[in-house]
Amino acid sequence: MDVQYVIIGNSAAAIGAVEGIRRTDARGKIIIISDEPYHTYARPLISYLLLGKTTEEKMKYRGDDFYERNHCQVYLSVRATAIDAREKTVSLSDGRIISYDKLLIATGSSPFVLPIPGADTVEEKFTFMTLADAKKLGEAVNQESRVLILGAGLIGLKCAEGILCRAGQITVVDLAPTVLSSILDPEGARMVQEHLEHNGLKFILSQAIKSIDHNTATLNSGEKVEFDIFVMAVGVRPNIQLFEGLGELGRGIPVNEKSETSCADIYAAGDCTESFDISSGQRKILAILPNAYMQGECAGVNMAGGAAKFTQAMPMNAIGFCGLHVMTAGTYSGESYIVQDENGYKKLFYGDTLNGYILIGKIDQAGIYTNLIRDKAPLDTLDFALICQQPGLIAFTREQRTEMLGGVSR
Amino acid sequence: MKRVYVNEQWCLGCHLCEYYCAFANTGEKNMARALKDIKIQPRIRVEEGNDVSFAVSCRHCREPLCVKACISGALQMMDGVITIDQDKCIGCCTCILSCPFGSVALSPDGHAAQKCELCVQTAAGTPRCVDGCPNNAIVFEERG
Amino acid sequence: MAIRYIYAEYEITRNYDRCIACRVCERQCANEVHEYLPEAHKMVADEAKCVNCHRCVSLCPTHALKIVKSDNTYKANSNWSQKNMNELYRQAEAGGVLLSSMGNPENFPIYFDKILLNASQVTNPSIDPLREPMETRVFLGSKSVEIERDENGQIKDNLKPHLKLNLPVMFSAMSYGSISYNAHESLARASQELGTYYNTGEGGLHADFYPYGGNTIVQVASGRFGVHQPYLEAAAAVEIKIGQGAKPGIGGHLPGKKIVDDVARTRMIPVGSDAISPAPHHDIYSIEDLSQLVYSLKEATRNTKPVIVKIAAVHNVAAIASGIARSGADIIAIDGFRGGTGAAPTRIRDNVGIPIELALAGVDQRLRDEGIRDQVSIVAGGSIRNSTDVVKAVALGADCVYIGTAALLALGCHLCRSCHEGKCNWGIATQVPELIKRLNPDVGYKRLVNLLTAWRHEIEEIMGGMGINSIESLKGNRLMLRGVGLNEKELEILGIKHAGE
Predict the structure, then answer these.
(1) How far is A272 from A370, CA to CA, in rounded Å?
(2) Do B97 and A367 touch (CB under 8 A)?
(3) Per residue, what are the HEC states of C199-263?
(4) With bands split at pLDDT 50, 70 and 90, how would you rate the model's confidence at B89?
(5) Which of B14, B29, B30, B52 to mutate to test the interface with C (most CBs of C within 10 A)?
(6) Domains of chain C, with CATH numbers?
(7) What percent of chain C has pLDDT over 70?
(8) Which of A392, A398, A407 sits opposite B143 (nearest CB)?
(9) Does C433 contact B51 at a Cβ distance shorter than 8 Å?
(10) How far is the C-alpha of C81 from the C-alpha of A235, rounded, in Å?
(11) Cα–Cα distance between C140 and C378 in angstroms, integer?
(12) Is there contact between B and C if contact means ≥3 C-beta pairs under 8 Å?
């Protein structure tokens, strides 16, 4: 009897799981449940869709034949409403109940909606998470639009960049004193902010919106901001409701390095989980796509009876804003090495190993830094002064290099 | 699978591999015309210093972090060769962030990433960097 | 010096329509001829430093470079040629002996080019080497043995030690020090694959190359560098070097800057000290003395290895060879005046010695006349350039030939004749680490193997044409040779008829 795999979700973690399962099990039945109506798409690309850098067709995360090739049965526009771990079934919003042998929760996260007095009076208000969100926003915005974005984090700024050329004016408000405060230090944030301001964005920082009345937002300072379109981008929350009552639960669904939850035969991967950040040694919600895919893939292999471990979770982001590349990875602890020059800004955080980095502008070969963090490479085994200046394999010893380059790697 | 390997003992740091790579990927027939007065952005790069030099290009990893990390699905592995669909790529550079060897870079126009594809799109047979290496420091062979 | 007497001999022509400023010429020139001008994104060259080694031309990916002889000239004078004047200026400036490298480049007759080969027609039909077995194998060593029988009437194996060659070509003596480690490795590996021998020269045998001992001839020369028991034991044969074609009567001098760590260890001398090989062996003043050394070496190797005596081709070469044959040597190597060198005084190289063709013919005839030809094998060297030179040398009486320059060319040498500068851009005649690595032995050895494989095919083809199926039947077979444009005396010495006769 073939195993029946059920995957709730249809994004990176889910696709990773399908590919993980198929590495080991070519036959088992895979059912994908998605509350969205689309073929799997690359969620972070929604801002690029608005920007015109991609199309709905090109932003498909996998080709049109993906499900067929991997023998997946896909239920689109259907929501999983409950999991019965004892009966091993999932109830769907259309009334169907499907059984599973192995279940993956890859439900992702949802935009956090801040309760603001008067928010219900706003006609054009949006979040920025799904393709549907992006399409709706794209239809609403025009050259006359005054857009107010609450949140100067990744989502808020990518949204701003996406509609930069399509909107009349964009104002970004955030309670934090700097942009991208979760991933950038103040100096890096200042560079990004200046670059975005130079490109026409307006920032009002260290301010919250006290109240909204139709097209006017009142800030804590009393300043009033007029707008036509309001985008709420204050953060995301893991979608963990399905797992409630089934096992251990934190802010996300805790998983081990095999992507197992505390409930038998139920795995979880992606933004809805809490995983172990190897760079800080702490459990975290790491809502980034590479982690989602790899965690999902790991889950898939294990669901199909293989033995995989995903032990490389850590924060990392590569983003561009109007041509300015920003890369960050790891955790910002330890001593720091800073260079700021015509190439941009570089800050490395290190102790005995490289803990994290911020790169703005010149990002060439940054993966070599990422790998130092990932491998926890002891810095005294390489030419740290050299690698600080420029990420390169030349900073390693010949023996290390031979090992890295001499055979089939990784 | 055959891969490109570099033996740094024999690398002369002549950088010809970079030029042959850049040439191969222009699709032009004449190297002088293809590369005249341009700053090349090859998919293989030579690192040098302290009497050491060696070329590095995509290792075509078995567990490719760039492919797994790619947010657009533009990077893919087919028969062991990792290729990029530049039309799909939106140039976010997550692959650059992920590659342990520094072997992915932005293409000359900056709109998409580029990497060594073993010349599968350019020349049948041997990758151009291998052909162009004057000292057999770059080889195309099967290793365990 | 405010007055510049020595001008650039060459001009580097760069086709700027082709040059992509990749800077490979700059990176690969140890003489720092090429330079990149970043502001102009342009390459320029200072030809005064150019030795015309063609490294840049060979590597230029867009074929943008060409080196031409400068037409800058003094007033025409057949007597005081530009070369003569330049050499004089150089000496007036430096006050030293002029040094040169590689073989005599002057316009002396090349007898090989005035000898033509025979082929069969109708009678004694030619042989197709692709269909018929063709023997190119030769054995070097003394063959003058009486047939002895044991008590059962069986023939006793009383053969003296021999060298077995799959083709009649060996690599001549080039020391580790004068050429690089990688050049030596290429020669050693090629010899092993081809079934022939290379020669250590007077540089000792690097510890890494003992595994190739079965294809190694070790040299004992006047400086005795690197000679010790394991060295002799490792080898297939031992060669006593009396003279060298490029510098007869002259010793050797490897400057201290080439005596780097490994070279010093191999030669058993201190790092940085000049390695000076005396002009004569201080213990050899007669054939009897030579005989003592020959037998000492035989004894040291328990009579298991043939002993070679190598001399330069000089005026009385035939008589000298006769003496050597009687000294107990198994093989005589004769090096003609065009033989190469890593460094020699220019005047000696260009004016001392005689052509190998004449020396070889003279020696072979003399030994035959004296009835001792079988006592020794003859190896001819000194600018064997191709397979026909080999065939002609064999027909003139050689058992096999030594090639040096030809082997170096296969390794990339472009005969810029600047070996003595120590900055060989091809990684051959240098001990500078970043230059040495330019010769990857994986490539080098293969090119040597290719070269001699090609020669062997050609030799078989030529022999087949003559109706000869074994190289032994060609040896001393001067009927297969005819001279063109040679005078009576030359024909007489060569022992060949004129074409048409």
Answers:
(1) 24
(2) yes
(3) ECHHHCCCHHHHHHHHHEEEEECCCCCCCCHHHHHHCCEEEEECCCCCCCCCCEEECHHHCCHHH
(4) very high
(5) B14
(6) 10-96 (3.30.70.20), 168-472 (3.20.20.70)
(7) 100
(8) A407
(9) yes
(10) 88
(11) 8
(12) yes
Segments making up each domain of chain A, as ranges: 4-110+237-303, 119-234, 332-405
For A43-74, letters b (16+ CB in 10 Å) and e give bbbbbbbbbebbeeebbbbbeeebbeebebeb
pLDDT digits 0-9 by tens, A190-205: 999 999 999 999 999 9
**The Cα angle at residue C267 between residues C263 and C270, in degrees rounded to 5:** 75
Average confidence (pLDDT) over C90-106? 94
| DSSP output for C40-56 | TTEEEE-GGG-----HH
Residue C301 corresponds to which amino acid?
Answer: T
The answer to whether domain A119-234 has CATH 3.50.50.60 is: yes
Report CB contact under 8 Å: A16, B61. Answer: no
Q: How far is CA A246 from CA A9, A241, A269, A300, C454, in A?
A: 18, 10, 16, 20, 79
Neighbours of B134 (CB within 10 A): 21
Helix (H, G, I), strand (E, B) or coil at A279: coil
* Interatomic CA distance for residues C217 and C198, integer angstroms: 6
Chain A nearest C-alpha distance from B130 (Å): 15
Tell which B residues from 3 to 22 touch A, by Cβ distance under 8 Å: 3, 5-6, 8
Summarize pLDDT for A133-171 with one digit per residue, the tens.
Answer: 999 999 999 999 999 999 999 999 999 999 999 999 999
Secondary structure E strands in A278-353: 282-284, 316-321, 324-330, 335-341, 344-350
User: Is the minimum CB–CB distance between B49 and chain A shorter than 8 Å?
Assistant: yes
Cα torsion angle, C491, C477, C193, C452, sign: positive
Minimal CA–CA distance to A214: which of A76, A282, A118, A109? A118
What pLDDT was estimated at residue C1? Answer: 60
Determine the residue type at A108.
G
| CA dist., res. A277 & res. A285, Å (int) | 9
Please give, rounded to a whole number of angstroms, the shortest distance from the CA of C194 to a CA of chain B: 22
Note the Cα C3 to chain centre separation in Å.
Answer: 39
Same fold, A4-110+237-303 and A119-234: yes
Q: pLDDT band at residue A9, thresholds of 50, 70 and 90?
A: very high
How many Å lie between the alpha carbon of C161 and the closest alpha carbon of chain B?
Answer: 40
C–A contact: 3+ Cβ pairs < 8 A: no
Mark yes or no for CB contact B68/A42 under 8 Å: no
Tell the CATH superfamily of the A4-110+237-303 domain. FAD/NAD(P)-binding domain (3.50.50.60)
Please give the Cα distance from C417 to C343 (Å, whole number): 9
Task: Tell me the shortest Cα–Cα distance from C212 to chain B, in angstroms.
Answer: 22
pLDDT of A408: 57
Neighboring chain A residues of B6 at a CB cutoff of 8 Å: 405
Residue type, C271: V
- Please tell me which of the candidates B36, B51, B135 has its beta carbon nearest to residue C20: B36
Measured CA to CA, the distance from residue C35 to residue C231 in angstroms comes to: 46
Give the pLDDT score at A123.
92
Cβ contact B23–C27 (<8 Å): no
Residues of A in contact with B100 (CB under 8 A): 367-368, 370-371, 374, 404, 410
CB < 8 Å to B15, chain C: 22-24, 27
- For each of the domains in chain B, give its residue range(s) and CATH number, in order of start: 1-57+119-144 (3.30.70.20), 60-115 (3.30.70.20)
C-alpha atoms less than 13 angstroms from C-alpha of B15 in its C-beta half-sphere = 16
Predicted confidence at residue C157, as pLDDT, reads: 86
Write out the two tokens for C153. Answer: 């009437």
B62 with A408: Cβ contact below 8 A? yes
